[in-house]
TrEMBL record:
Lineage: Eukaryota, Viridiplantae, Streptophyta, Embryophyta, Tracheophyta
UniProt keyword annotation of Ribosomal protein present: no
EC number: 1.1.3.8
GO biological process: L-ascorbic acid biosynthetic process
Protein name, entry field: L-gulonolactone oxidase
Taxonomic source organism: Urochloa decumbens
PANTHER family named among the record's database cross-references: GULONOLACTONE OXIDASE (PTHR13878), L-GULONOLACTONE OXIDASE (PTHR13878:SF90)
Amino acid sequence: MAAAMRALFVFLLPILLISRHAGGSPPPDPVSCTLDGTSDCTVTNTYGSFPDRTICRAANATFPTTEAQLVAAVASAAAARRKVKVATSHSHSFPKLACPGGRDGTIISTARLNRTVAVDVSRRLLTVESGMLLRDLVKVAADAGLALPHSPYWYGLTVGGMLATGAHGSSLWGKGSAVHEYAVGIRIVTPAPASQGFAVVRELNVGDPDLDAVKVSLGVLGVISQVTFELQPQFKRSVTFVTRDDKDMPAQLAAWGGLHEFGDVAWLPRQGKAIYREDNRVAVSTPGNGLNNYLGFRAQPTLGLLTARVAEERLEENGTDIARCLAARLPAVTFELQAYGFTNDGVFFTGYPVVGFQHRIQASGTCINGRDDALLSACTWDPRIRGPFFYQSGFSVAMSKVPAFVADMQRLRDLDPRAFCGMDAKLGVLMRYVKASSAYLGKVEDSLDFDVTYYRSYTEGVPRAHADVYDELEQMALRKYGAVPHWGKNRNFAFDGAIDKYPKAAEFRKVKDRYDPEGIFSSEWSDQVLGIKGSPNVVGAGCAIEGLCVCSDDSHCAPEQGYLCRPGKVYADARVCRFERTRLVDEL
């Protein structure tokens, strides 16, 4: 028990320290070139690793600062018939959206396309370049007395990146929580015939049917240059977090999105608790200048990150369920005690509700704001540090199916509650509301999005403790309840057959064929996901351990370590890698 308590302390240490660091070394550029700064390049995501752990290479990279330079970059690649992919400032997508494949492709970075183009206060329109961060977008809007009604919670995303993946916040009200629902105009650069100079700018506005293809495009139609948003007058929000037991959670989730405009719910399965966010619009005259500076998005001391990872690995590889569950309780307790980083005046938390202007409440991410401090502190996931390393899964279940799905999740939890402590350690399952969209690759129905973050080993093929419950939960959502995966998250297997769940997928592919008939902006991965050629599954020894496939044979797991392919416990059609101690003894 003493060893367990030491592990608990080192888990808690970095969390206690994060409130003392407002900014640290900003994340590295996801694009790295070795020769003249533009040749012999690699591109990765902000976590430093794609699901298949491969290194993505490209022959060259370009960093345009104007639309004219962007057109020239696309034209050059199209004329040479080189594959092209777009990289953003921080590249937060977990799948290989930014990888052109092979070694001869081109990376176009939008990091320097980050300016305001036009502000029309009377019409509440804001036009910006696609590389602008959400952080800067909401500030520009606020300075003009306007507000983007909804957004993701992390403000390190770019405008183009949010549109490419269908990024969203939480709401079923009005147009809903997806950022692309507020885009009323888009300028996109696409390949063209030689007679048109190999590249053209297409301008799309409300009423153009192609707008519904470009709004959520996975980056396969071209490079978005500019986006015009229709905003709202600046407003305030009132936020309160309430923790309850989870006994009535299926019924509560069915109603919560209709009761609170910005409401969400976080579930701590082992603790049997649900954290309900009561979040609503209030009059601008309501007192309060609250601020959301979420604890998990603040810079953390590098020493704390390193120590936390060592402790996590020891618990994962050698710890008992009891030790893991004790450690898992502390993050949630610590975050709750510090109001998750919300303050009533930007400095102190004095109690709920926290009332503040939309741009101060809707998103945060101060770990990207600091000056370089020689990596003494950084974002939690900075790949230059051997700190926390994790998977992120996200999938949306139609609201009509949510109560039954959540009841099944609870049934799975009740069979072995300690198996879910790993979820509690990462602050549980975050559930956000997303409204149905006209976008071809947007949500088909009003849905509840489930976000799960969990441990990942730095060593390929190493199983996670109780990985079977995570995999069964995901397969149950995707297969039994017809969930669709988040385009910017998930491991490979989640995308298998996903495109068939979108009734307008064929319409999207038609637009793709018109905009880019040579497939300049397509890759092996995007062709697999869009159902054009191949499968996103990578079948082989240990593939299910890495999330590259769903197991159908013991070899897809880790039989030499006692992990065998078995049916799910609640969803019997699931196939998961489950640890069987007696079989391991026999093998030995």
